[in-house]
Amino acid sequence: MGRRVLVAAQADLDRIRALFGLPDADDPEGLAQIAELLEKVADEKASLPNVEETRRRLSHGLDLTSRLTVGDWLDMWLAGKKGRPSGISRDEGNIHLHLKPRIGHIRLDRLRVSHLSEIFEAIAEANVTITEGSATRRRTIEDLAEIPWKGRAHRAHRAHRARRQVLKAAIAEMDPFRRIVTPATRQRIRSTLRAALSAAIAQQLITFTPASHVELEAGKRPKALVWTEERILHWKRTGEKPSPVMVRTTEHTGLFLDHVAEDRLYALWHLIVFRGLRRGEACGQRWTDTHLDDGRITVAKQLVVSGWEV
What is the DSSP string of 225-275? Predict the structure, then answer.
């Protein structure tokens, strides 16, 4: 037992000598950094730092005593970020929903590509769970809708009521419908992290950004499809849209305009249909840019959503 303690003490002494041997003899600042590092290790009763990692941090001018975590840095970066409110809001969502819960506890200088690969593998697994849960919830709601409210006999009515109660209780226990994290969203999550890590490099906190080296599925735009009769029937039967982007035919658009002819916003729907304004452009149209006598508008402003605010 005593010999093992002696061997461990000698190993620690050798490592301390190796650490003090990292700076050049004419580098008093480097020697002071090593001394400060060892003093902090002693105060915290922590393990001695790795010699090669310390050599790398010292050679790149990094703070040897920093214990900054990824979560700490993401908060600092976000607080100082400037730009469009919508872009900042998107970064904030990526950080609080995906990055901090999964890698926020990791020390910033110890973040590796493998950590990020695990993030996106976990997101893919969660997508499977969300898809299966939503399908189960949808089937249960459909089953509930098919139960008659009145039975021919009193006994049948009681059975229907009991069945409805069971299904309602089951639905209440299920998770609400949630969207999956698409490949495009995963690309945006990585983009947020890459920007934050690039800023950390500029601040000489790290020397490498693993976000630039993790491989992800390309975030392709969904292909737009036209609403055909077959696709409409499939959607009504299953609740599944053939594509996230569906296009109405001329006939469908005409039916829609007929349906909203008495609506107070009919002029807005008419304008969008025949002039192709985006939602934010149509809702943000100002009277000062609207010339009714000439039948002319100037599209100069649009409304955007930042977080939960317009």
Answer: EE--HHHHHHHHHH---SSSSEE--HHHHHHHHHHTTTSTTHHHHHHHHHH
Give yes or no for a contact between 74 and 95, defined as CB atoms under 8 angstroms apart. yes
Tokens 């002029």: give the residue. 267
243 vs 260: CA distance, rounded Å: 25
Burial of 70 (0-12, 13-18, 19+ CB in 10 A): buried
Residue type, position 230, single letter = E
- Rounded distance, CA 114 to CA 112, Å? 5
Q: What pTM value is reported for the model?
A: 0.60
Q: Phi first, then psi: give them for residue 226, nearest 5 degrees.
A: -85, 140
Instruction: Find out whether 171 and 205 touch, Cβ atoms under 8 Å.
Output: no
Largest CA distance in the chain: 99
Which one, of 171, 161, 106, lies nearest residue 141 by Cα?
Answer: 171
pLDDT, tens digit, 9 for 90 and up, residues 3-51: 787 888 888 788 888 888 888 878 888 788 888 878 877 777 777 777 8
Nearest to 252 by CA among 234, 231, 237: 231
Q: How many CB atoms neighbour CB 234 within 10 A?
A: 14
- What the block records as the tokens of 185 is 């969203």
Contact 245, 224 (CB under 8 A): yes
Q: How far is CA 310 from CA 85, 280, 305, in A?
A: 11, 10, 4
Burial degree of 94 (CB within 10 A; 0-12, 13-18, 19+): buried
- How many other C-beta atoms are found inside a 10 Å radius of the C-beta of residue 1? 5
Contact 144, 170 (CB under 8 A): no
The candidate with the shortest Cα–Cα distance to 95, out of 84, 110, 81, 83, is 81
Please give the structure tokens belonging to residue 107. 């020390």
Q: Are the CB atoms for 189 and 126 separated by under 8 Å? A: no
